[in-house]
Amino acid sequence: MKILVIGQAPSRKSDPCKPWSHGASAKRLWKWFGVESRDQLLEVADLFNAVPYWPGSAGAKGDKIPRGEELSMVRDRVIRKIRRGGYKHVIVVGKFVDDLVRDYLRRKNITALTIPHPSGANISANGIDEEMIMKLVKFMMIIGEEK
Description:
Elements: E1 3-7, H1 24-33, H2 38-42, E2 45-49, H3 68-85, E3 89-93, H4 95-107, E4 111-115, H5 129-146
Parallel strand pairs: 1-2, 1-3, 3-4
Helix pairs in contact: 1-5
């Protein structure tokens, strides 16, 4: 069974149908997983964006995030993806997605790891490549022991 990697939304320039397909954030995520391409990442993980379109810029703070009714629809979309895929292991990318699904993942006893968004604009992710790689390696080892 593959793991599910859930990101916030596609970037302005990326293909919404191919999450983590190119760009600096995608390349950093690949590095954290120890792979060199999206295709290699797809060998171990399914990739999914909570928001299926680029939501627009929020200025220096990154991208806009859904609010109100739209937020509920996005949450339902992510939960449907997890449920339909039967995922038991999820990697959550960024605080927005973590806030969105944390309670659901705990209630359903789904093993999850939250990592910072790999964007260079995300100050908390800068300079922690080795730390993230080690967290992902440990997570993957736990999954391997459960099989």
